[in-house]
Amino acid sequence: MKAIIPFEGMSQYESSITKKLRGSACGPVTAATILKHHETKSYGINDLYAQLGSTRIGLFTWRLLRNLRKLAGSRYKIQKARSLEEVKSELLAGRPLAMKFDRYFSFHWFLKPTYNYHWVPLVGFEEKPDDLILYIHDNGQKNRPSKLRTVSYQANQKVLTFVKIVPIQTG
């Protein structure tokens, strides 16, 4: 099975983001692009960086959960996905997730994941016989826009966290 959500990524190094924040803006960029996917509203990354409680070493999951809930109010249900089946279900429903690679605070210092510490929008998956391939937007680099990439779930599973950002239907 394969599912990929059409998604517009954004580089954390784009010129509208304060230069000193760019290296640690992956969390706010991930949140902003997912919210924009649902609302078609753009969020200023510099403001979102402060509102989410981002720091120069990154955005902790508990801060993303707490502060994005405050910011989004009753428009969204924001919580960790507890299983891979829950992650796949969200993607099949057309809802991207925030995915964090974190080898440091997951206490897997000696692993070699795709990223040591990085938030990305997770926009799809493909089931293979021996692995689950995850489709992410990588949030760009200094001289490159964000691009769609694939990463192995098997090789990264011990350092991954998934956060669901689910719009609440009203009316």
User: DSSP strand (E) fraction?
Assistant: 25-35%
> What's the Cα radius of gyration?
15 Å
Structural class: alpha+beta
Sheet with the most strands, sense and barrel status: 7 strands, antiparallel
Morphology call: globular
Keywords for this entry:
171 residues, alpha+beta, 7-stranded antiparallel β-sheet, 27% helix, 27% strand, globular
What does this structure look like?
The chain is an alpha+beta fold. It is 27% helix and 27% strand. The protein contains 5 helices and 7 strands; from the N terminus they run βαααβαββββαβ. α1 packs across α2 (45-52). 35% of the residues are buried. The mean pLDDT is 93.
